[in-house]
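Supplementary Note 2. Why include the ligand at all?

Several targets in our set were suspected to adopt different conformations when bound, so apo predictions alone were not considered sufficient. For every target with a known small-molecule partner we therefore ran a joint prediction. The input for zinc ion is given below.
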Amino acid sequence: MQIREIIADLIHSYQSVSDVRTIQTIRAIAVEKIKQTITGDYPEIDVLIEYALNDHLRHGTADKLFANLKSDVIPFAQPSKKQVGKVFHKIKKLKVPDFETIDLRECTFVGWNDLGTRRKFMLYYEDDQLRGISGDISSTVVKGFCAICHHESNVALFTAITKRGSEGQYTKKGNYICTDSMRCNQQLCSRTELDDFLDTIN
Ligand SMILES: [Zn+2]
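The joint prediction is reproduced in token form.
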């Protein structure tokens, strides 16, 4: 839930910046970011923005706001094992995660690692269609910037194997991404970031 971070930054600015014009600019950027993060019409977001514009906003109030907001956020629709199997039909012995243990309200995509085969799987929706990408994930974890969420994180080299064009050539592309996809989701600012990443892969 990236909005939490935007608001936390904003509160920090309210407490540390005294220049009114600077605050106005920071505020405008924050509102813009919130709108980019949650697209669509949600009255809860308007309430949130209204609160965010109040420079007396403090962390306690913001936390209460988030508790309300979270229950209203549309979760990642839980797919059935069969649907997941269909997305990754080429993978033998696919390990499907237990979606009950994942907070799908926090997820823009669902990603998991198969430690045995050193593969990473990611599910996402595109025009309400469940899609997925998979690839090798290196066992070496380093500190670096993630190609999906753009945060400094524990990342590993992810090499996706994708089919390009009708000729069926396979291409390999390597990117450093968060090993922990749950964390990646929490650090993700907007759906656009995920789409940009997918564009470079597909
Ligand atoms: Zn990430």
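The longest strand covers residues 152-164. Residues 81-201 form one domain. Comparable summaries for the other entries are listed in the accompanying table.
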